[in-house]
From TrEMBL:
It is an enzyme of class 2 (transferase). Residues 13-87 form the U-box domain. Pfam families: ARM_PUB (PF25598), U-box (PF04564). This is U-box domain-containing protein. InterPro entries: ARM-like, ARM-type_fold, ARM_PUB, PUB22/23/24-like, RING-Ubox_PUB, Ubox_domain, Znf_RING/FYVE/PHD. Pathway: Protein modification; protein ubiquitination. Functions as an E3 ubiquitin ligase. It comes from Ziziphus jujuba (Chinese jujube). Signal peptide: none annotated. Keywords: Transferase, Ubl conjugation pathway. The gene is LOC125424339. The keyword Transport does not apply. Its EC number is 2.3.2.27.
Length: 421
């Protein structure tokens, strides 16, 4: 009931008819259903998606599920927002309407028409890409029309690795840019990973002159590797010559193109999960690149970077490469208890490997102040795995402490510590 609605903290009450009957919040994209009732689009879509087939207000059956934008009400809400700006109310933006399924079908047919003119096909792909960028709803609509299979066919058609025609390449690149915006099923990933020619083509694109093409290729490689469940196929991809070189080169791009860092570290991490080919990552310069770019990663990407560092430290060649970089140990020590619990855990794990294999790393860790970090860590709310790694580090480094630095390290260094990996 209108009288039951609480006023906003802003000091102004939302008119009753401007509130969604489901969420009771100000409607941002009002739509009308077949019963004539109006709801905010996300609320009614969620209602229907959970299996409801009746109108929430009238309880009448919904004869169809078409949502008609209520432009008049939306304009009235916008005018009300403007009139109440002095109370801190922000004007709601005019929402972009979801893509028309009929238009999506037409554009996909136009894009996949082998007999159609290339400019027309490119135009269709670019319009689809624009729609996909607008919202999740559009991507869902596009995906529901068999788009991933159509786009993959265009990307890999006509043996593109040997086809140097500009028109064919441009179609492939535009389709690739659109394809990486969708998750692939396991069978779709397998269709790529099991085809050496397709994997070779994606590796070839990692060295394209366009950074966007290179990044999109790395993005699809990551999607395929992560989505392929067969260990043999994943190893087959990561064993391809130059694939690590291409991905690591993307990570070396200037910060001015941040997507390169995000996609590059996702691809490198996915490839490094294959144990038998990690040495290829080391040979391609992964250790130096990861340490050099560590400060540039955002939180989630920093977690992947540290996880990748820990994975590479598990092989002798990886340990040697990280030990050889003067900043490795100081950075890993500094990052403990910073950014996130996962970063702390991965950094501690990498230090365990480095200090187990190198006396030099032990001295560098002590000089960098690791004692304070570890004592804080074992008393913090971090994960049990991180604490076990910290305790193991304390035990490993016990003989390296200055005599007056700690009186009783036995309080922290357990006599029996099991490696957590």
């Amino acid at each position: 009931m209108p009288g039951s609605l609480e006023p906003l903290d802003l000091g102004v009450q939302i008119p009753y008819h401007f509130r969604c009957p489901i969420s009771l919040e100000l409607m941002r994209d009002p739509v009308t259903v077949s019963t004539g009732q109006t709801y905010d689009r996300p609320s009614i879509e969620s209602w229907v998606a959970t299996g409801n087939t009746t109108c929430p207000v009238t309880r009448s059956p919904l004869t169809d599920f078409t949502l008609i934008p209520n432009h008049t009400l939306r304009r009235l809400i916008q005018e009300w927002c403007v009139a109440n700006q002095s109370f801190g109310v922000e004007r709601i933006p005019t929402p972009k309407q979801p893509a028309d399924p009929a238009l999506v079908r037409t554009l996909l047919a136009q894009a996949s028409s082998v007999s159609g003119p290339v400019p027309s096909r490119l135009s269709a792909l670019r319009r689809l890409r624009g729609l996909a960028r607008d919202c999740d709803k559009n991507r869902s609509i596009i995906s529901s029309h068999n788009a991933r299979e159509i786009l993959a066919e265009i990307v890999f058609s006509n043996n593109n690795i040997s086809n140097t025609g500009a028109d064919s390449s441009e179609l492939s690149h535009e389709s690739l840019a659109l394809l990486v915006m969708f998750p692939l099923t396991e069978s779709q990933c397998t269709a790529v990973s099991s085809d050496p020619d397709r994997v070779a083509y994606l590796t070839h694109l990692l060295f394209h002159s366009s950074i966007e093409v290179r990044v999109n290729s790395a993005a699809l490689i990551e999607i395929v590797v992560a989505g392929t469940r067969t260990p043999e196929l994943r190893a087959q991809i990561s064993n391809v010559d130059e694939i690590f070189e291409g991905v690591i080169e993307i990570l070396r791009n200037p910060i001015a193109y941040p997507r390169a860092l995000k996609v590059g570290i996702k691809a490198l991490f996915a490839l490094c999960l294959v144990k038998q080919t990690r040495h290829k990552a080391v040979s391609a310069g992964a250790a130096e690149t990861l340490i050099d770019r560590l400060a540039d990663f955002e939180k989630c990407d920093a977690e992947r970077a540290l996880a990748t560092i820990e994975l590479l430290c598990r092989i002798p060649a990886g340990c040697a490469a990280f030990v050889g970089h003067a900043l490795t140990v100081p950075l890993l020590v500094k990052i403990i208890l910073k950014i996130s619990d996962r970063v702390t855990e991965y950094a501690a794990g990498a230090l365990v490997s480095l200090c187990s294999s190198s006396e030099e790393s032990k001295r560098e860790a002590v000089a960098a102040g690791i004692l304070t970090q570890l004592l804080l860590l074992v008393q913090s709310d971090c994960t049990d795995r991180a604490k076990r790694k910290a305790q193991l580090l304390l035990k490993l480094l016990r003989d390296s402490w200055p005599h007056d630095s700690i009186r009783n390290s036995d309080d922290f260094a357990c006599s029996e510590v099991v490696l957590p990996f």
